[in-house]
Amino acid sequence: MENEMLSALEQDARLTPRELSVMFSRAEEDVRKEIEACEKDGTILGYRTVINWDKVGRSAVSALIELKITPVRDRGFDAVAERVCNYPEVKSVYLMSGGFDLCLIVEGHTMRDVAYFVAEKLATIDGVASTATHFVLQRYKDSDIVFDNEETDKRGNDW
Q: Are 103 and 111 in contact (CB under 8 A)?
């Protein structure tokens, strides 16, 4: 499948094979087969809806957590990363360059839930040397979607 069509799907997963066939001057059945092949071979990993949970009153806390880890012999960072990926609280895991090794995006109901998760589950994993937790205070953009944050700065600053 061509990169332009994959990019279009990444921007809007609701695009149908019919719409894509018109956009890219291709036969609808060919587009459908290409999408199925990409799903089967792991090029397309899933489809996702980004929801502004603040609009429906769901309280949740997100945090970015830095992990410094000691690599496992013959497995490097993969052993710890695979273990961390299994926790439902963990939404994303990235191997990083720089001052820490793994970056995690974690969600919980409260800050206390996230703190408990870090202290009782993450920090106790063999190979985890240290953690640093950064709580998300406001989401402005996520997955290429800009959030309409109705609240404005109430400190009186006109920037």
A: no
Select from 66, 61, 69, 67 the least CA-distant residue to 89: 61
159 — pLDDT class (breaks 50, 70, 90): low
Angstrom CA distances, 4 to 22, 48, 142, stand at 13, 19, 21
Q: Averaged over 3-10, what is the pLDDT? A: 91
Output the six-digit token pair for 103.
Answer: 């970056």
- The CA distance from 7 to 11, in Å, is 6
How is the chain split among helix, strand and coil, in percent rounded to 5? 35, 25, 45
Overall residue count recorded for the chain in this entry: 159
